[in-house]
Amino acid sequence: MSRRPAVAVTGLGVRCAAGATPAALWESLLARRPAISLHTFDDEGTVVGPASAMSGFDPAGYLSPKEVRRADRSAQLAVCAAADAAEDAGGLQVPPGRRAVVTGTAYGGVVSQEDGIGRPDVLYVPRLMNNAGAYWVGARLGITGPSLTLSTACASGTHAVGEAMRMIWSGCADVVLAGGHDSALTPTTAQAFGRSGAMVTETDEPAAASRPFDVARRGFVLAEGAAFLVLERLDHARARGARVHATLTGYGRNSDAHHLTAPHPDGEGARVCMEQALADAGTTAHAVTHVNAHGTGTELNDLAEARAIAALFGPAAVPVTAPKAVTGHALGAAGALEAVITALSVREGLAPPTASLTRQDPRCAIDVVTTEPRKISNGPVISNSFAFGGHNACVVFDTPHD
Questions:
Q1: Among 15, 48, 269, 347, which is 20 to 30 Å from 21 by CA?
Q2: Distance between CA atoms of residues 136 and 74, nearest Å
Q3: Using an 8 Å Cβ cutoff, are 220 and 141 in contact?
């Protein structure tokens, strides 16, 4: 463990309906203000449901008009969030070859893919490629070192952050931009998730449609967004006088090998993944001050995750937050958004409350923070992502230490 360089989080950037900046996103979370409303997915108005869509998004100033035409909306969101993270870090203060980018996405350029079916133009393939976001971020920020894209459904963003940390540990990069992006608010995607029973399609109260751990939960709410973190060696960050939001200390990843879409009902894979992340960080469950839950609001996922948390930490033994009640579920971007939120929790010493939770499912024996933000002490905070395909990923953030 002593041979590993400590990894600092020096830059944060987001684009989502709950906030176009980390500060705005944080304010939405603390105020329990869901960014969810009824959304029309198709031009004919036949596919309508609750969603968390960014209205008025404009990539001007980040991409030229020509570049906008060449990039899917998902990649545009990625460039804006990544560029903001780099600016927040004070720039990527190493040569281009020592910079890296790791992106996570579940769907890639699905808007362009759906729009172009049967009538593809010359840019159809470049717009829909899953790795297009990594290209645009690298080109925009002069990154000539490693460039990778991971696609593990809703764990993609968390996997990207964890693998980026390991790049720094291995010495193949000094600064890594890591994050996730997805914009899958298409009629086909909405119909598919709706027919599967995983997504909320009808509600009398759209803003409260995403209700993790509530007895009345009916599924997740589809969202779009992007989030990126700048990771670098802590000693380098200190030497250049950079602000350090938090340190990234541990990473776990495994798979359930149980079912294509359903988690293992007892949460065994999730529990082991959290244990791996804590062991990687050189800490224990007893030291953890807060858990940022995957918390999708689906019947099976919430139960499995709650069982995993209770099994590892003890029943109601650690404060838990489920941000998707505010942000919706941004698929491959979700883990990255929640990595940003977790870094902010460490920096501010607060566990944000979970919105729209009025009656907790008694089968979920965990301490979900509601009503008001809760003070947490310095120490490790874990962020969970548990995806379709049984892909599990957890990352641990901590208070910076000299």
A1: 48
A2: 11
A3: no
Q: Which of 339, 355, 328, 73 lies closest to 223 in space, CA to CA? A: 328
Rounded Cα distance, 208 and 243, in Å:
36
Q: Kindly tell me if the per-residue pLDDT of 356 is higher than 90.
A: yes
Let me know: does 190 contact 53? Beta carbons within 8 Å. Answer: no
Tell the burial category of 2 from Cβ atoms under 10 Å away from its Cβ (0-12, 13-18, 19+). exposed
- Coil, helix or strand for 118? coil
**Cα angle, residue 12 at apex, residues 7 and 18 outer, rounded to 5°:** 140
CA angle 163, 237, 144 (to 5 degrees): 50
181-240 pLDDT, tens per residue?
A: 999 999 999 999 999 999 999 999 999 999 999 999 999 999 999 999 999 999 999 999
> pLDDT, tens digit, for every residue of 9-36?
999 999 999 999 999 999 999 999 999 9
3-class DSSP assignment, residue 65: helix
The single residue of 16, 39, 80, 154 carrying the catalytic annotation is 154
> Contact, 22 vs 344, CB < 8 A?
yes
Q: What share of the chain is helix, strand, coil (3-state, %, to 5)?
A: 35, 25, 40
**Model pTM score:** 0.96
339 is written with which tokens? 């990595």
Beta strands in 196-333 (DSSP E): 222-223, 225-233, 246-255, 290-292, 319-321
Residue-by-residue DSSP string for 338-352 = HHHHHHHHHHHTEEP
Q: How many helices (H) and strands (E) does the chain have?
A: 13, 16
Q: Which residue has the tokens 């830059």?
A: 11
Residue 162 has pLDDT above 50, yes or no: yes
Measured CA distances, 351 to 54, 82, 231, 292, 346 (Å) = 25, 25, 22, 8, 9
Q: Confirm whether 159 is a catalytic residue.
A: no
Inform me whether the pLDDT recorded for 170 exceeds 70.
yes
Tens digit of each residue's pLDDT (9 = 90 or more) over 131-141: 999 999 999 99
Q: Which two tokens stand for residue 299?
A: 């019947």
Overall size of the chain counted in residues: 402
DSSP state of 171: T
Rounded CA-CA distance 325/21 in Å is: 18
Angle at CA 78, nearest 5°, toward 74 and 82?
175
To the query of whether residue 329 is one of the catalytic residues in this protein, the response is yes
Q: Is 172 a catalytic residue?
A: no
